[in-house]
Each structure stands twice: as C-alpha cells, then as structure tokens.
Design goal:
With 406 residues, the chain is mainly alpha-helical. The chain has 22 helices and no strands. The chain starts with a helix and ends with a helix.
Length: 406
C-alpha cells in the first residue's frame, strides 16, 4: 500500500479508506491515478466509475475523458447517464449537455451527442431541444458535399420545429437552407427560405447577402427575370466586396438570357476585367454559352487559351464544382465541333468528374449523352482506349456515390 501510495502520489490513508469501503465514492482523479499504476484499462475503469456516479459535473468530466480517448460510443453512454441523472430535471440536463456539446471540437463526438440530445428530447417531449439538436446536426452534416441530399432532408425536418428556435437560430437556419436549396437546384424552395429569413433579419450580415444572391440566382435560373430588376438595388446595399461584382455580373447575365448579346458581351468582358479571379469562371461560362450559340470559334479559342487565368485552384463548394463541370462541358462542345475528338473526350470526362463530386447525376447523364451523340453525329467509332477512359471516370463517379450511400 505504501509503494502504491508513493507511485500514485496519493496519501496512504486515502487508499486505505477506499480499500476498506469507508470512502463510498472516491474522486475520479484519485481512482484514475491508482488505476494507472495497477494497469487497469482506462475504458474499463471509466465504465465502472460511470455506473456508480450520479453527480452531473463529474459525468460531464467523464464525457470529456472518453472523447479525449476517441471512444465516441462510451462518451455517448456517459452522456445518456448524465441526462438520466436524478440530480437535475430533464430540461436542465438537456440544456447543460447542449451547451457542453457546443464546445466539443471532435466533429464525430459532437454529431453523436447532438443525435443523443435529439433522441432523448423526442422521448421526453422537449421540442426546443429537438429543434436545437437537429439544427446543430444539420449545420455539421451540410458541410459534407457528398451528402447534400441527405443533409437537406435533416434540414426539412427542422421546419416543423422552427418555432422553438430563437430568432437568431431561425435566421441562420433559413439562410443556410436557402443556400443549400440553391446548390441542390431546389430554386423555388431557395426563394421561399430566403424570404422567410429576410422577414426576421434586421442586420446586414454576410450570410444574409449570400442568401440574397442565391435567391436572385434562383430567379435567374428559373427564367423569371422581372423580380431580379427590383431585387438588385436592395442587394447592392450590402457592403461586402463580392456584392458589387456579382450585381454587375447578374445584370450582364440577364441581358444574355434575354438574347441581347450586343449589350451582354461588352458587359461580361468588363466583368472579366474587374472581377476577382475565383469568380472569373462564372463569367467565362456565360461568354462560352453565347459564343457557342453564335459559332464564334475565334473568341472561344481566345478564352480557352487563357484558362490558367480563371480556372479555380481551390474547388471547395458545390457551386464551384458545378461551374467547373459546366466549363469543361462547353470546352468539350467546342473541341468536338472543331474536330478535336480526343481533346473533346478529355474535357467531357473532366466535366463528368466535376459533377460526380457533388452527385449531380442529371448533369452527368446529360454530359454522357452529349459525349456519345458527338461520336454518333460524326460517325466516329469509339476505340478501346476511349472506352477504357470513359469506364475509369464512370467507376470513379460510382465510387463517390457508393461512399455517400455507405
């Protein structure tokens, strides 16, 4: 006992009381120090201690310990014990665990704890924490570009509980869902979510501005140009760098979509000179679409030869992946028309690969259909090497899909 006391740094009398049963509930730090000397597995120790401990503060400490050792199931098990502790009422326990979880840096652990909060709140009929837990779960899940559809469905469930969120939480929810809806081509829902957020918002935040732009783009992509003219002045009142250039770009696109190319082309070229490099690809795509309609191969060639000046280096959003896929599709169309079949095939495969990363299967199908149509139209057979290249990209896209489903 003396040797153990010396090695563990604990007074001999303390160990004696524990051994004799005089200390019914030893401090966690004491037990941990003794167990480390006796080579008792940490997880086993924590589980045993958890079974006899009911003090909420200590249980929160044990959750942190389990997370530190990356034992997420054990952390959730301790968290459930915390929620069931008779020392506090259900609402207080949920509130404390929710606050605690917000400070957890381990993403897997945060998701697991938020899921537990939602489940427990459902079982006990505490809708505010169903809403809060689902919102935090959604805000994490939506960052996974491979699970955009699944995370959007989580967001849709929150709609039924939105009234239990604070005003600030509702604003974040509606605007994030507006951006999410835009990125998954739910343009009508994007507009509805943005309007709901704007009805609550009083401050001009960057999130508000980006949701506002998503709403404008949704009108644009559905061919409803009239509301855009009235929305742009309000949008331009936001004082962020991206607002001015995106507003100019939008005005030019509206001209292009209306077929007013004599006005649209100079406006787009001016945007290209003034716009930031990450946004140039969007202008290029608009110009390429116009030039392809006009069969202006000279202008297309000039743009493609300068692609190193506008292709994005960091493609980290669904919008950027979609824009890159669109660019390669236009490039491939031009190359096929010019009789450059190998180059066209490469571009179309790059397009499919970009769309695959965001599971844009409608665009993938359209690109594959266009690709095969060009070979058929020009009565050009597809050699074995080309078939192999197509198969490799197809398998790559299917890998994205299967990983998402898993």
């Amino acid at each position: 006992m003396t040797q153990l006391a010396n090695l563990a740094g604990i007074h001999k009398a303390v160990i004696s009381k524990i051994e004799n049963g005089d200390t019914k509930r030893p401090e966690w730090k004491t037990i941990k120090a003794i167990a480390s000397i006796l080579d008792i597995p940490y997880e086993q120790l924590l589980e045993c201690y958890m079974d006899v401990e009911q003090r909420p503060d200590v249980l929160l400490e044990l959750i942190s310990e389990a997370i530190e050792f990356s034992d997420i199931p054990l952390a959730s098990k301790v968290a459930l014990k915390f929620l069931e502790s008779p020392r506090e009422d259900t609402y207080t326990s949920l509130e404390r665990l929710y606050t605690f979880t917000g400070a957890v840096t381990n993403t897997e652990a945060r998701l697991s704890l938020y899921n537990l909060i939602v489940t427990y709140a459902r079982e006990r009929g505490v809708p505010p924490y169903i809403a809060k837990g689902l919102l935090q779960q959604y805000l994490i899940e939506r960052l996974d570009l491979k699970r955009l559809e699944e995370s959007f469905r989580i967001g849709e469930e929150i709609i039924h509980y939105a009234g239990f969120l604070s005003r600030e939480e509702q604003i974040v929810f509606y605007f994030r869902m507006a951006l999410h809806a835009h990125n998954t081509k739910r343009y009508k829902q994007c507009i509805e979510f943005c309007k709901a957020g704007l009805a609550l918002e009083t401050a001009e935040t960057e999130l508000t501005a980006r949701a506002f732009l998503a709403m404008i783009n949704s009108y644009l992509l559905t061919g409803n140009y009239d509301p855009i003219e009235s929305l742009l002045p309000d949008y331009e009142s936001f004082g962020y760098d991206f607002v001015e250039e995106s507003a100019k770009f939008t005005r030019a696109i509206v001209k292009a979509k209306k077929g007013e190319y004599d006005q649209a082309i100079p406006m787009l070229k001016k945007c290209l000179e003034e716009i930031s490099k990450p946004a140039r690809i969007h202008v290029i795509n608009e110009l390429l679409e116009i030039y392809l309609k006009m069969d202006d191969f000279t202008s297309i060639t000039e743009l493609i030869e300068a692609e190193d000046q506008f292709l994005p280096f960091h493609v980290n959003t669904p919008y950027k992946h979609a824009s890159l896929g669109e660019y390669y599709k236009y490039k491939g169309t031009y190359q096929f028309r010019a009789g450059k079949f190998d180059e066209g095939l490469t571009s179309y495969l790059n397009s499919i690969r970009s769309y695959g990363k965001i599971r844009a299967y409608e665009e993938i199908t359209a690109s594959m259909s266009d690709l095969l149509s060009y070979f058929t139209l020009h009565k050009k057979g597809i050699d074995l090497k080309s078939i192999q290249r197509i198969k490799e990209v197809y398998d790559e896209v299917m890998t994205y899909k299967n990983n998402c489903e898993v």
